[in-house]
Amino acid sequence: MLYFETIANPTMKVSPVAPLVELAKEHELILVCDNTFASPAVMRPLEWGVDLVIESASKFIGGHNDVIGGAICMKSEQLADDFLEQIRWSTMVKWGAPLSPFNAWLLLRGIQTLEVRLQRQCQTASALADFLAGHDKVSQVWYPGHASHPQHELAAAQMDSPGAMLTFAVADSESALKVADSLELAAFGASLGGVRTTVQIPATMAFLDISSQERLEMGILDGMVRISTGLEDPEDLIADFAAALTGI
Which of 47, 152, 176, 239 is most buried, by CB atoms within 10 Å? Predict the structure, then answer.
């Protein structure tokens, strides 16, 4: 099995899907893609030849940070036709992990607005990335839609839009925490993909259990702040980050 993310958390590295598909075929591997950071509104890996795509439906698909769920999608010549049914039987029936009717309804509600939400969120992410890239307190911005991103052209070639996730870096973890604590519109929290902008500090949250040396090798800096843009007015959101950055 070969497993990859469409857009990596939190470095925003973009995986080259076509070469990975060829590599998997050459070695007869099952190719699995985690498409959560992109969402189906931005990237549809099955159309590129990926065997299995997984989505954390709690994020962009649900879109309101009020549901827990996931999805596994398949379009594969290597896997048996009943492969997904086997997963359904093993996880839902044997382990007792079915989606509740109410959570299913919340996801159906979210899917109806997925495309229009992502259009606005991607526009906001692009505007915010431009602002942060020009700020003297920000050392670097990682956003596939920004010209400074090393895989900007790859992202444009294989994704409908650059996505609603971006990361920027300030001097250190203390400065990152001050920025996150000072935000008023954006919420300081671990989740993402909702209608409200959320931020987290990867080094002290999602990757806290990894040594500082390993984080550096992965490209995760102590001063990184990860952003999931929501549906706020872009100018209001930029003003919120501008005010927060003045405190460091």
Answer: 176
Q: Where are the domains of the chain?
A: 2-111, 114-246
The reply to whether 114-246 shares the fold of 2-111 is no
Encoded amino acid at 193, one letter: G
For the domain spanning 114-246, the CATH number is: 3.90.1150.10
* Level-2 CATH architecture, domain 2-111: 3-Layer(aba) Sandwich (3.40)
Token pair for 237: 């959101």
Assign 247 to helix, strand or coil: coil
pLDDT in tens, the chain (248 residues): 999 999 999 999 999 999 999 999 999 999 999 999 999 999 999 999 999 999 999 999 999 999 999 999 999 888 888 888 888 888 777 788 888 999 999 999 999 999 999 999 999 999 999 999 999 999 999 999 999 999 999 999 999 999 999 999 999 999 999 999 999 999 999 899 999 999 999 999 989 899 999 999 999 999 999 999 999 999 999 999 999 999 99
